Amino acid sequence: MTWHASEPPPWPAIKPRAWPRILVRLTALSGIMAFGLLLHLLLRLVERPFFGLRRPLTPGVTQIVCRAVLKVMGLRVQTTGTPLRARGALVANHASWLDIFVLNAAVRVYFVSKEEVARWPGIGFLARTTGTIFIRRDRKEAAQQTQVLEDRLRAGHRLLFFPEGTSSDSLRVLPFKSTLFAAFYAQGLRDFMQVQPVTLVYRAPGGADPRALAWWGDMEFAGHLLRVLAMPYAGQVTLILHAPLRISDLPDRKAMALACETAVRAGMADPSARPENR
Known about the structure:
Distance between the termini: 24 Å
Number of domains: 1
Largest sheet: 8 strands, mixed
Low-confidence stretches: none
Shape: globular
Strand content: 5-15%
Mean pLDDT: 88
Radius of gyration: 19 Å
Order of helices and strands: HHEEHEHEHEEHEEH
Number of strands: 8
């Protein structure tokens, strides 16, 4: 089974004794996210007229909510390295919908996502509310979308995107696409912008398929969510924050994409990033 296969692996059926755990966790997650969303919307009423594009309050709410969600799921996060402090962006490998919670819990960022996500029921609304930038895969709109990224960067936002363009089975890193890196080379930005590569390394709980936390191919979101919630312990993810790269040190977007991909692959290959099963 590879990341691009059309059929998901034959996951075992959820055992009856796991359903009480699933229901308790679903109830807790619903309450946490509903409260966080309400607080977020109220704070936006203050942020929007007084701060414009800048959001000094709501990213903290997102971070707290995501940390609480991971706690309920039983997914432990181990972080190494220091988050980017300068203006710029983070780029990471993409393995699962869990990536969103893990990254938001660790660093205050705004995601760059494919335009289709904006139309997903529930998830699309949450993404728009938290400031996600949606990109349409259309060459005719490339210049306009690059301008949107530039505007957000100039406003001091730290962006985060997945240069692979799709999710994998969590055991590999796919080739990085260089398109979105072009915004960092705009006049007036390249002299001070930095990009921080980030590696996400998932470790499933003992006895589970090593790809159990990955969500890729044609997997259904609801089914995968229930399988994760059914686990007594959902495993661990190691978040490796690599040294930031200065835009001015690399000649173009393709060189930057390759440098970031190399760093992320090195993190994936590091045996210390994959702790023993629990």
